[in-house]
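Page 37, continued from 36.
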């Protein structure tokens, strides 16, 4: 009898403890993230000498603010465990310099330790950091490598300057004389604590989402414009926007970075607080076939079929996790030198776009092709928006894209 009573009491205590633990567990939402890329032939790697006994300082623009944050470091493509030490965060004085506000400088720990050994192929989440950050503010993340990564995990084409300086300088007010590189290195995500209804929008795409031809350190990608609009809307104060675009990315095959389907779990499902995904992908699949000499109509038809299949897979996999998926039409790229689409190429793009626009496939659709095309020649970008390569918009085009995303999707 006493044993039974003790069991009942024990179950009650455990249940109460579990309920209490559930109540105090914070709700973490990604306020910044970037897609991880391994070595690529078209993207020169930093040398081992550059990353030996080196402090790396990187500036990221947060979307939603929060009272507490945490940082996720990545060794996704490493072939050996990676040691990172002296990790610190501080408010950046500007997105265009390495200077920090030293009064906001905080040490970052991992399981209570000042250094972390990140296992091969893994991401490691820091302990919480009590450091209030405003929406659209700039966070400086600094850490030290005693030895270089076995294989670099990075995001080339960050459109943001990172700073490298030999020695352990992570708490310095400014990294004077630092070498500059336009890439993020070993960073995966920054999360903030938020209300239980807070959620994250992921922009999943290629170089047009990544921001090719955007202003370095200018934060004028289309996702930045969307984030500004979201923050300005009082009904969306609990919504964050993060960019998971990779330049040269494909739906079906590995281009620059893993294909969308291969990276989907890491870049979508694993992101904190994800509730929505906006998909703008496919121009590189179509363009790659268009560059193939003698590509046939049958090959174009097969490409269309497989691209639609991949988009269907994205929707299916996201819906299985309660994530809404919004599609975008593939934008015009006529007149370019790298991709010079012929009639079959254009017909294939329009066939995929017709499927995207048809009801019942996505939870919502934005016709960015129509938004950005030249009214006088719909097969080309509007000259006002064209960066000059007839493939990527410049900042005015990215603003038009960000302005076109319906905010009602997130309410």
């Amino acid at each position: 009898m006493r044993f039974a009573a003790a069991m009942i009491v024990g179950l009650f205590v455990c249940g109460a403890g579990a309920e209490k633990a559930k109540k105090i567990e914070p709700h973490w939402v990604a306020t910044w993230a970037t897609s991880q890329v391994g070595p690529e032939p078209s993207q020169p790697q930093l040398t081992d000498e550059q990353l030996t006994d080196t402090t790396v300082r990187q500036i990221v623009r947060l979307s939603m603010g929060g009272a507490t944050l945490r940082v996720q470091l990545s060794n996704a493509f490493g072939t050996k465990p990676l040691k990172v030490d002296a990790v610190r965060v501080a408010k950046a004085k500007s997105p265009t310099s390495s200077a920090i506000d030293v009064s906001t400088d905080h040490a970052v720990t991992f399981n209570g330790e000042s250094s972390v050994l990140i296992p091969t192929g893994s991401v490691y989440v820091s302990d919480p950091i009590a450091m209030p950050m405003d929406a659209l503010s700039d966070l400086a993340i600094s850490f030290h490598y005693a030895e270089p990564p076995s294989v670099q995990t990075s995001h080339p084409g960050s459109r943001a300057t990172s700073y490298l300086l030999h020695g352990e300088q992570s708490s310095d007010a400014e990294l004077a004389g630092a070498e500059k590189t336009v890439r993020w290195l070993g960073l995966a995500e920054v999360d903030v604590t938020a209300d239980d209804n807070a959620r994250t929008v992921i922009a999943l795409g290629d170089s047009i989402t990544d921001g090719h031809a955007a202003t370095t350190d200018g934060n004028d990608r289309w996702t930045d414009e969307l984030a500004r609009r979201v923050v300005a809307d009082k009904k969306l104060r609990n919504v964050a926007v993060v960019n998971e675009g990779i330049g040269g990315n494909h739906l079906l095959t590995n281009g620059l970075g893993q294909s969308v389907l291969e990276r989907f779990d890491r870049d979508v499902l694993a992101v904190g607080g994800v509730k929505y995904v906006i998909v703008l992908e496919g121009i590189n699949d179509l363009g790659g076939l268009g560059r193939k000499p003698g590509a046939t109509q049958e090959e174009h038809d097969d490409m269309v079929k497989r691209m639609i299949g991949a988009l269907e897979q994205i929707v299916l996999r996201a819906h299985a996790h309660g994530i809404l998926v919004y599609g975008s039409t593939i934008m015009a790229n006529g007149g370019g030198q790298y991709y010079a689409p012929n009639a079959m190429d254009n017909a294939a793009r329009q066939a995929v776009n017709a499927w995207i626009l048809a009801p019942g496939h996505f939870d919502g659709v934005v016709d960015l092709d129509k938004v950005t095309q030249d009214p006088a020649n719909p097969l080309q970008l509007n000259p006002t928006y064209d960066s000059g390569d007839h493939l990527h918009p410049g900042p005015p085009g990215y603003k038009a894209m960000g302005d076109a995303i319906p905010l009602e999707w997130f309410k």
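The CA atoms of residues 62 and 136 lie 5 Å apart. Flag for discussion at group meeting. The chain has a mean pLDDT of 94.
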